[in-house]
Write a structure and sequence with these properties.
Largest sheet: 2 strands, parallel
Shape: globular
Number of domains: 1
Pfam families: Put_Phosphatase (PF06888)
Distance between the termini: 54 Å
Number of helices: 7
Strand order of the largest sheet: 1-2
Protein name: Phosphatase
Binding site for Mg(2+): 173
Keywords: Magnesium, Metal-binding
Radius of gyration: 20 Å
Number of strands: 4
Bound molecules: zinc ion
Cofactor: Mg(2+)
Strand content: 5-15%
Structural class: alpha+beta
Length: 186
């Protein structure tokens, strides 16, 4: 139970992080974790205990072996994703990781929003994506880059440009995967 003083402190301390979204709240929690003695090895140890489905690991290896580019598009953060992938031996298979920035300030993990409060909002037309990322818009950007790369390769090989739409396999299970799923086309 909170006393009225501690409740007031909680409301005041968390007013800005709550208004700035989930990632800012997570950063505040990481700060409190550090101040209460939590260190880098504790976080890394916890990340290394996160189970990853063996069939998903094998699936990533098979896709990579067959020439697919693997991309992580996530509302988590760089450190969490990199550590989990590294621990499972598949980090090097991924072409890129698009997520919230994170870094170690010595022993403290600091995370921030991909689209911060200082940036223009992402203008997602659905209005349901979180403040810091619209996965649909990020997906559009990645696809445009890959299509451009393909065109350049074809241009070099054949001297002509063909319109080639890359095959895309999207896997997601969260609310913020709804927006990108609407952008998939045949
Ligand atoms: Zn969106």
């Amino acid at each position: 139970m909170f006393s009225s003083n501690s409740r007031l402190r909680f409301v005041n301390d968390w007013k800005i992080p709550l208004a700035n979204g989930q990632t800012c709240c997570e950063n505040e929690l990481l700060k409190e974790f550090y101040e209460s003695g939590g260190r880098r090895k504790d976080i890394i140890g916890a990340l290394n205990r996160v189970p990853m489905e063996p069939t998903m690991i094998e699936f990533c290896k098979q896709l990579h072996a067959h020439g697919w580019k693997l991309v992580v598009l996530s509302d988590a953060n760089q450190v969490y994703i990199q550590e989990i992938l590294r621990h499972n031996g598949i980090l090097e298979l991924f072409d890129r990781i698009i997520t919230n920035p994170a870094y170690w300030d010595e022993e403290r993990l600091v995370i921030s929003r991909l689209i911060g409060p200082e940036h223009p909002p992402h203008q997602c037309p659905l209005g349901i994506c979180s403040l810091n990322i619209c996965k649909g818009q990020e997906l559009d950007t990645i696809l445009a880059e890959y299509i451009q790369q393909q065109h350049q390769m074809i241009k070099q090989d054949e001297g002509t440009v063909k319109v080639v739409h890359p095959r895309l396999l999207y896997v997601g299970d969260g609310r913020n995967d709804y927006c990108p799923s609407l952008r998939l086309s045949t």
